[in-house]
Amino acid sequence: MKKIALVSAAVLMIGSNIAIAQNKPQAVVAVETAPGVLKVAEGVQLQGKFTLVEQKTRQVVIVGPNGNEFKTTLGNEVKNFNQIKVGDIVTLTHVEILVADIKKPSKVDIRERVETEKAVTAKLGDKPAAAIERQVAIVADVTAVDEKKGTLTVRGATRTLDIKVKDPKVLKGIKVGTQIETVVTEIIAIEVSAPKK
Predict the structure, then answer these.
(1) pLDDT under 50 in the chain at which residues?
(2) From start to end of the chain, where are the E strands?
(3) Is residue 42 part of a domain?
(4) 1 part of a folded domain
(5) In which domain, by residue range, is 187 found?
(6) Which pTM value belongs to this model?
(7) Would you state the pLDDT for residue 107?
(8) Rounded CA gap, 106 and 112, in Å?
(9) Residue 179: CA atoms inside 13 Å, Cβ hemisphere, count?
(10) In-domain check, residue 19
């Protein structure tokens, strides 16, 4: 699930106002549950149009569908900046995927957290594009289950969390002492493209 795009602008766009989209934001949520298993994928895609691009200062203005403006200066980490033109479209894609699996109690006391990160950028001469994928894999022990409240308490390698579970089916068969293996993947991608003729 790799996507190409422009990383510094992605962080700026998410940190500001999501309403900068040129087209209305497109959102997707998918949930799959079974006893002891939870899979959730959430994604949103936003678009804006460049109305100002200053090559010397690297300042840009992106305008959304309601005329709202987003002004920023793009740093040197945005490769191929000279390829951005007024009228180009910038597309931001943000996806989060969570997969959790309940395991039988382990005789060995295993709790861990592993983080990885990958990044890709556009080729020299292409429109600016980059993507970053962050993944966190966690193994945690279940220390409490409250089916009435729909809560689960888990202790991981660095902290203990209370988790609210919306679907009661997920809690079936979960007992104190069982382990949860969870992988959370986040993808942020920005891509600049010429407007369609």
Answers:
(1) 1-21
(2) 26-34, 37-54, 59-63, 69-73, 89-103, 112-121, 129-146, 151-155, 160-164, 179-193
(3) yes
(4) no
(5) 7-193
(6) 0.69
(7) 63
(8) 14
(9) 16
(10) yes
- Beta carbons within 10 angstroms of residue 78's beta carbon: 22
Q: Write the CB contacts of 109 (distance below 8 Å, at least 6 apart in sequence).
A: none
Name the CA radius of gyration of the chain, rounded.
21
- Inter-residue contact 59 to 50 (CB < 8 Å): no
Of the CA atoms within 13 Å of residue 109, those in its CB half-sphere come to 3
Which pLDDT score, from 0 to 100, does residue 17 have? 37
- pLDDT reported for residue 21: 40
β-partners of residue 116 are 135
CB within 8 Å of 48: residues ≥ 6 apart: 13, 20, 21, 22, 62, 63, 64, 70, 89, 90, 92
Number of domains in the chain: 1
Indicate the residue type of 89.
I
| pLDDT value, residue 2 | 29
2 domain-assigned:
no
CB contact set of 159 (below 8 Å; sequence gap of 6+): none
Residues present in the chain in total: 197
pLDDT tens for residues 12-30?
333 333 333 455 667 777 7
Q: What is the pLDDT of residues 112-126, one digit of tens each?
A: 889 999 998 889 999
* pLDDT recorded at residue 55: 94
